[in-house]
């Protein structure tokens, strides 16, 4: 157990999009044998209610480092219970599915659609279908300038998204995205599970599909396999790599 203020101090020092903290729920719990744990996520600036990427990482640590013997892990979080399971060389996350709603008006320049997710406070901006993936990748986004432009607290993340192409070297992806959250101290996130909990709902409706393959076009980039379920949730699968191990001493 950590002192409450240490969570934020460690996350600020790590300086990653999110740092995850896994905790035992009961004194007798074991990281190698128990199947249910507490989980919290902190950006360099504050705690957030949902982070798919850090949940994937947490499951990876339990499955591959502590050698947890359970087939399914349950995390108790600010977004309710989230489950993670291994399927081949992927880890599948069971996340909430968030609906989006159109605002009163949409401009007609390069934006094809605009949606808002009140549950997550994410604004979804869909670029014109006329654009290629390279337009999204090369777009210069000055996320720091969002802060003085949006001070109401109604927007905590901006999703830029683009419909996939059925031809060309990048064919096979149903949609692309980039994600910015300067309100949480994250200028651009590499790959974002929580954003895809919103994107999955939107693109499933637009494409008439429940099984989708997505790619987040950050500099690092990442692929997500999406399966929208009938119970109002979504399975998002991704691959993991253990890149660093260390010990904190107090």
From TrEMBL:
Pfam families: PhzC-PhzF. The active site is at residue 18. It comes from Ceuthmochares aereus. InterPro entries: Phenazine_PhzF-like (IPR003719). The gene is Pbld. Transmembrane segments: none annotated. One of its GO terms (molecular function) is isomerase activity. It comes from the Eukaryota. The keyword Isomerase applies. This is PBLD protein. Belongs to the PhzF family. Keywords: Isomerase. The keyword Isomerase applies. One of its GO terms (cellular component) is cytoplasm.
């Amino acid at each position: 157990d950590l002192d409450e203020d240490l969570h934020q101090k460690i996350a600020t020092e790590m300086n990653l999009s999110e740092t995850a903290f896994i905790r035992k729920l009961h004194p007798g719990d074991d990281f190698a044998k128990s199947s249910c744990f507490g989980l919290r996520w902190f950006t360099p600036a504050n705690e957030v209610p949902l982070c798919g990427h850090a949940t994937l990482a947490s499951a990876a640590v339990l499955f591959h480092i502590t050698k947890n013997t359970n087939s399914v892990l349950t995390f108790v979080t600010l977004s309710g219970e989230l489950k993670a399971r291994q399927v081949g060389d992927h880890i599948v996350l069971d996340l909430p599915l968030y609906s989006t709603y159109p605002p009163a008006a949409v401009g007609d320049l390069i934006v094809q659609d605009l949606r808002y997710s009140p549950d997550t406070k994410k604004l979804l901006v869909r670029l014109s279908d006329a654009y290629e993936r390279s337009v999204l990748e090369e777009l210069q986004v000055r996320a720091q300038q969002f802060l003085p432009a949006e001070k109401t607290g109604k927007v905590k993340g901006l999703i830029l998204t683009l419909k996939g192409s059925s031809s060309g070297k990048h064919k096979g992806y149903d949609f692309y995205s980039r994600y910015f959250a300067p309100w949480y101290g994250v200028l651009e996130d590499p790959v974002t599970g929580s954003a895809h909990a919103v994107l999955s709902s939107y693109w499933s409706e637009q494409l008439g599909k429940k099984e989708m393959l997505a790619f987040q076009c950050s500099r690092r980039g990442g692929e997500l396999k999406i399966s929208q379920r009938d119970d109002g949730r979504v399975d998002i699968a991704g691959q993991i790599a253990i890149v660093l191990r260390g010990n904190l001493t107090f």
